[in-house]
Amino acid sequence: MLYKEQIDKDRIPTHVAIIMDGNGRWAKERKQVRSFGHQAGAETVHIIAEEAAKLGVKYLTLYTFSTENWNRPADEVNALMGLLMASIEEEIFMKNNISFRIIGDTERLPQMVLQKLNECIEHTSGNTGMCLVLALSYSSKWEITNAVKNIASEVKEGKLSVSNIDNETIDKHLSTNFMPDPDLLIRTGGEIRLSNYLLWQCAYSELYFCDTYWPDFKEEEFYKAICNYQGRERRYGKTSEQI
Questions:
Q1: In percent, how much of the chain has pLDDT > 90?
Q2: Residue 167 catalytic?
Q3: What pTM was estimated for this model as a whole?
């Protein structure tokens, strides 16, 4: 039986986060340059975004470019920025009623890239289906550090009391404050680590790791991850009997 046929439509994760890993290794195995893998990976983004929207996922957050990725060779960074601009196709957003958002230290992005992204955000803001979020120039350490600075400023200005700082305070100061925490985090490419991605938000997320490189992570692989998620018991620190 195909995995899609096993999915319980009443138990679709509200928020799916993905670490799209393996583009470079996929290209290397085919004796191609890394940019070839990134291009193939961009095509997978379109496929998975459409399928997630059709399934009823409300938020899909993709780890697209980390703050550490700025340390890669300049040629690769430039190629990634060019690919990012080319792969933002508003037609796909509009056809699938998908809105678009970005999170991360966007001030580091080239001006032309940021302008293109902001235009897409504005043009899709009225869409009411899934929200596709790209984590760009993002890392959890950057995000949490930024949140702490902003909270400290509010305390200094007398707008916030130290005794009133709680989990909700931190949630509100994170760049993800407009959406719920991920129910499911998927990492492709065979590595088993979070790589500085949504560390605060994934405290109780279900984690799914697979060996499939991102360019090969098509519909059936996505359905398989959803089925795996639906087979788990989410206890949030409680016992089975308490749920």
A1: 87
A2: no
A3: 0.94
